[in-house]
Amino acid sequence: MISISMKAGKVAAGEFAAEQAIRSGSAELVIVSEDASANTKKKFRNMADYRSIPFAVFLPKSELGALIGKGDRSSVVITDANLAREIRAQLEPENEQQ
Predict the structure, then answer these.
(1) Label partner for 62 (CA 20 to 30 A): which of 1, 23, 30, 40?
(2) Please, which residues bridge with residue 12 across strands?
(3) pLDDT, tens digit, for every residue of 17-38?
C-alpha cells in the first residue's frame, strides 16, 4: 500500500518533506523507520501527537525507502486519508508487538 501511495503521488518522503506535510496539515499517517535515531522518532511522534495524526514505526530505512523507489528514508508521510486508513489496518498487528 505504501508503494501504491507513492505511485498515486500521496507520499512525502524524507525528513524535510515529511515535516512540511505535517505542518501544512496534509499528513494522514506518519511512518518512521525502526532504525531511525531516537531523536528522529521522538520528534515525529511529538509532531504527530500534537496534531492528532496516526504514527507508526515500520521497517528499516533501506526497506522503507525501497517501498517508494528511493534510497534510505527514515520518515514517510501518507497524505491521502483512504490510503492511510488501509496502511494503518495492515500495520496494526506489526505495531502491537512493539
Answers:
(1) 23
(2) 77
(3) 999 999 999 999 999 999 999 9
